[in-house]
Amino acid sequence: MNRCLKQSAILEVVSKPRITPEGTAQADSKAQLPRKVVSISRGRQRRHRVSDGVMKLLLFTLVGVFFLTGPAMASDLYPAQPVTVIVAFTPGGTTDMLTRMVSTRLSEQFGKAFIVENKPGAGGNIGTEFVVRARPDGYTLMVNSVGPIAVNPTLYKNLPFNPITDLEPVVQIAEVPNVLVVPAAANTPDLKELIARGKTKKGGLSYSSTGIGTSSHLSSFMLAQSAKLTAVHIPYKGADALNDLLAGRIDFMFATIPSVMTHIQSGKLLAIAVSSAKRSRSLPNVPTMIESGYPGFEAGSWFGFFAPRGTPQTVIAKLNQAVNEIIKDPAIDEKMVFAGADPVGGSPEQFKNFISSEFKKWQIVVKDSGATAQ
Amino acid sequence: MEIFQNLIFGFSVALSLQNLFYCFLGCLLGTLIGVLPGIGPLATIAMLTPITFSISPVAALIMLAGIYYGAQYGGSTTAILVNLPGETSAVVTCLDGYQMARQGRAGPALAIAAIGSFFAGTVCTLIIAMFGPAIAELALEFGPAEYFSLMLMGLVAAAMLAHGDMVKSLAMVVMGLLLGTVGTDVNSGWRRFSFDIAELADGIGFVVVAVGVFALGEIVANLGDSKKSAVFVAKVGGLFPTSDDLKRSSGPIIRGALLGAFFGVLPGTGPAIASFSSYMIEKKISKDPSRFGHGAIEGVAGPESANNADAQCKFIPMLTLGIPASGTMALMLGALMIHGIAPGPTVMTQRPDLFWGLIVSMWIGNLMLLVLNLPLIGIWTSLLKVPYRMLFPAIIVFSCIGIYSLNNNPFELYLTALFGIIGFMWMKFACPPAPMLLGFVLGPMMEENLRRALLMSRGDPMVFLTQPISLGFVIATVLIVVVMMAPALRKRRGDITG
Asked: ipTM, 2 decimals?
């Protein structure tokens, strides 16, 4: 026990002089913030470090020696130590699945472990804030999705950080369209009939979602708005939403493709449209919302790698290139089709521009829907 | 007989050397993490999922499932020995199991927990094999109105959990309901009682409250009492249950297994509800309810069988409907998907090897767990002879590791410490924490289902009475109230006349 503690203490000292040019710039910008904020964020990092130390005691005793002999932290040698990839959602979700898929390959490619760590809570804000406040050295990264990056800044009134300016986009991994499903027994086999039913049904249609302000909720809201339907939103906490839909107590829902794929195959649910601009590779026979007469209707989820602002450009370029290669791999691609994901890739700049257009789009929808979280 | 053919096919899959090995590995890991408080199956399965990509999906699922139900076995160990609920569902086991341990009867308590769990596991294997898909269809009949009425019945029955002061028990139920409102309101997105703390946005974690109030509170109280001896029990009695113990436990085990299977099939109920219900029923039908809370073996046998049955039957909605009933199930669903298998109605026909292999492996796993656990009882009980000064710091360290691993967030540790202090105060005021926990578990679910049912009915409250299943629960609730009030009324009348 004593020996472990000593080693992790040494590691603390060694890891401190890890300074990059951008790193000092980051420190300057933090110094301009009010004093309280600085002390909070430092406190957070220290707490993280101490508890991390506890969690990894065993690891340190095993590989501690290698850490001590390899203090070179120049970015051309990146990664020189294990990299933590934060997921701001619980294990098992689409974000987590994609992250683990890509991180396993990154570990193989770089010969250093990319450790996935889930920090869920507050609609992804807790994990996102953790990475915003992390040291921008490329050893804390995150895979994040449309929600925390493009929706939450409008949805949450008092977000203490700005995910768009405080995070550096690295690369977009994939797009995951939502699919509009209805219970098979409801007898509304296409969008037209669903809308027609909505106009005549007393009290309007009910739609379920995986929570307020999720792309599932906002997609349905967009549909109701553009079709001039009265529809009641019935929010759930995540996957429970399917239960009432299958039983026919709910009229329609925008769901992620893998969560409903098996029900579509077995005929319990009918897929009547996908929310992406192009048809999904996972459901090639299902028309898009645009094809069904709703021009401009595009409302899917997307996922990508992010780093704290100030992370060296060389590190970002290196990661960008690696992920771009990984998502082209046929084995990964096959798994992505199954997960309802279409790989995207591209440069950090492309990702950045995409994010800013997404932010503007969702800002309008969130405001129209009146959804709020505060 | 199709079932026998299916089961034999299942045995042929599960008994392959590779699958047996992964089954054993899963059970062993599950027992270990179950024993370590806080480190739950969720975190373990999350960490191990990527490793399973390289083995066959059947073996992967068998191992992950082994971890899951193995943890239910292990979870009772610390609950009985040191009042520390290793898993959510073990909270109820603390009530009487820990009292048994204090009386030197930790051995019988641990043994009956293992035997009850094994029996429940066997029953569930048969239930899944015979009726799995049909039951799952039935579970779909449970909508928000039905869930609300069911939980209302549970909450009213919670008054039976009380021993001692009824007013205090009811106050604690309300306390639990209030604690359950903390966090983001699902319907409006507004945060309640979160004081702008991001970590409170999703509410307070069950494990945080349970470990704080039960384990830490107990430790503080023990330290404050200087008269007690420096070890838990100086003398540990017999390791195995007497024939009287077995006789007393057989009824609760059977009832617990059936009750657990019922709740297990319903995806909308959490893991603690089955064991709470079993405890309440055993206490109600017992000839001498006053023994409960003071080391009644029925209070261990029933809930332990119920929670294992619940855990195992949670596979029914997952495999046949593709609906994950808990976080752990969602994770296994994810693991299956990465293997290219979409859980749902098609699994049974497309991958019979997976479906039947898993089910049979669960029974084999339960047998392994029984064999694994019984010889360990001697070792566990000898832990009770460890002095306080070593045992207490160890419990606190393991609890902290476990709680941190839930969300990788240090805030939860501070919260647990706070609940430790609150738990100590409750103990001093003789306020029973169990009714509080039940309110805490049921409150948010009831609110969600109540509002959801009303949203669907567009505000018409009659929905609870027009749905037949819901009406049944409402009637049962009224009956429970009448039965509970009757003795009190009779007594008062007696007072007046006499």
From this structure: 0.75
